[in-house]
Amino acid sequence: MTETNKFKKVGSLVLASSLVMGALAGCGAKNEGDTATGGDSGKSSGGDTIKIGANLELSGPVASYGSSIGQGAELAVKEINDAGGIDGKKIELVKLDNKSENAESVAQAMKLATQEKVVAMLSPATSGNTIATVQIANEQKIPTIGAAATAPNVTINEDGSLNDYAFRTCFIDPFQGTVAANFAVDELDSKNVAIFADNASDYAKGLAASFKETIAEKGGKVVAEEAYVAKDTDFKTTLTRIKAAKPDFIFIPGYYEEVGLIVKQARELGIDVPLMGADGWDSPKLVELAGADALNKTYITNHYSAEDPDKKIQDFVTAFKKEYSDKSPDAFNALGYDSVYFLKDAIERAGSTDGEAIKKALEETKDLTLVTGTFSVDENHNPVKTATVLEFVDGKQKFNSKVNP
Amino acid sequence: MEWIQQLINGISIGSIYALIALGYTMVYGIIKLINFAHGDVFMVGAFIGFYAIAKWEMNFFAALLLAMMLCAVFGVIIERVAYKRLRNSTRIAALITAIGVSLLIEYTVVFFRGAQLESYPKTIENKTITILGAQIGTHSILILSVSIGLMILLQFIVQKTKIGKAMRAVSHDADAARLMGINVDNTISATFAIGSSLAGAAGVIFGLYYTKIDPFMGVIPGLKAFIAAVLGGIGIIPGAMVGGMLLGVVETVVSALGFSLWRDAAAFIILILILVFKPEGIFGKNAREKV
């Protein structure tokens, strides 16, 4: 998720901002016409349906992410409508394709807000595309929920101010560092840990920082802290240094390209302690690069696992398989599904489809149990929720445990 | 024990630099051209080896030979198409052309297969041997022995064969060599062929050792090998070998001291220091510039 965002962000921001201007200019005239015909309650959809927009990557390079969120969301909408809807009103999901582009995401968000008049939106799958739409959500006072937008700056701007109408269902990137630290100390009983982080990525640095902080709180010790730069191929020297510090756990936040080689070379050097990373590891290429043997005793954090024995999850898996010809739901499916229920809960509590009321209710969400964990929303609009730890066993990801924040 | 381990790490990476550096130094020795496309021949060699092993199911040594042969042909084509007609133009023109050729090769590969990485199939099992507390993979031993074997073969070709004699003669004075009846064009092509085949071999063993290959993998090793060649004395074959090994070890020492993020910077600092203080390199004689 974050990787695509990284590539596209810079180039597309310029494009996106110019498009916003265009879109705003284009819509200006039209909006005036709308107000005349009772656009004063612009955000509440009339009749007996509640319109929810979904601005998703249905085509383009990350189409699989967006489509998965869409599938999950549609299943949730179907279930809610079958059960009688929200306060007797059916939900209508308006799904638009943003072609995996920032500029198109902005245009579709604008369309959802001004033409479709949705009460809330599901924002695009990648953080970059979501960030592009946040401004519109704020201006139009339409709560937008990122199912899988994990970058911290989706809800919080660089200057620390809050994006009032931006929410998310997934945990943020650095949170995975906290989870890894908890897992290392509580589950694996590790006290002397090492960190080997990608120095060229904010994602990895954020994870490393939160991991270090939590380890210190838990009374653990960081015996070695080393860094590498993306695109390196030789890690043996640094790994030899780490080995000499005798850690009993190594945290390696980064992306699969380098991590695959790091895991392989670590095992070649006889480092057989548990290694752990985050969702940046999650790629079939990792297994090819590192080899299935080397990956034994390595762990990653993720949003959810379809193998989790929890009843709520198994019910979801069964329902999903029934709906989508036996496809096992992935994390995006689950997050898309949860996003709709997250919203439903808020609309019910708000008792209204007014944007501000829904926003307030979303902020007040507490102990809501969903498929990807029980969560409460914190002051930065981030969910505080459980994370799932997966273990690689002979090259396959297996459910290991759930770790509370 | 940590230091023995680090030394082995350094020599392993150094022998790959050395193999690539040989091609740089041979080409420079004969036509005074820094062939920046050399790192990309290395990349092409890695890909040929990859397809040979993964798609055509050849064994490692057959793939190595195939990559060497195809890279030799590839090197000659580059020379005939891009460099030959520039032989009498300024050196800067040839240098810029070399950079152009380098980018052309990289992006042609990207055009045909995309920029995504590929992971090398595991043809030879990597066992770990423990010597004096240091872990040595059989892969490290393999790359070291293949590199040394190829270097010995190269020394033999250059010193003992007729074509080697012709190369040395052309390198010394191309015009005089031509007057003595040596076919200069063919000799230069042969130099490119041998240099490129060594780069191809380096590509295949790099793939085996590091697993990950991609279309831009040649850029950094290419530059490092260039530094290695300058360090040893550009144009001097034993210099390239020693320079490569030395650079590998220096980089390892820098990382081992905890400055891993400075590793690449250290290599380039060496280049600057060498060029400032001893531009002829470790093995170089302070020769007069021929006018």
Automatic annotation (TrEMBL), chain B:
GO terms for biological process: D-alanine transmembrane transport; L-alanine transport; L-isoleucine import across plasma membrane. It holds the Pfam family BPD_transp_2. One of its GO terms (cellular component) is plasma membrane. Its main location: membrane. It is a multi-pass membrane protein. The chain crosses the membrane at residues 6-26, 60-78, 90-112, 132-158, 188-210, 225-249, 261-277. GO terms for molecular function: L-isoleucine transmembrane transporter activity; L-leucine transmembrane transporter activity; L-phenylalanine transmembrane transporter activity; L-valine transmembrane transporter activity. It is found in: Cell membrane. Keywords: Amino-acid transport, Cell inner membrane, Cell membrane, Membrane, Transmembrane, Transmembrane helix, Transport. It comes from the Bacteria. Belongs to the binding-protein-dependent transport system permease family. LivHM subfamily. This is Branched-chain amino acid ABC transporter permease. It comes from Metalysinibacillus jejuensis.
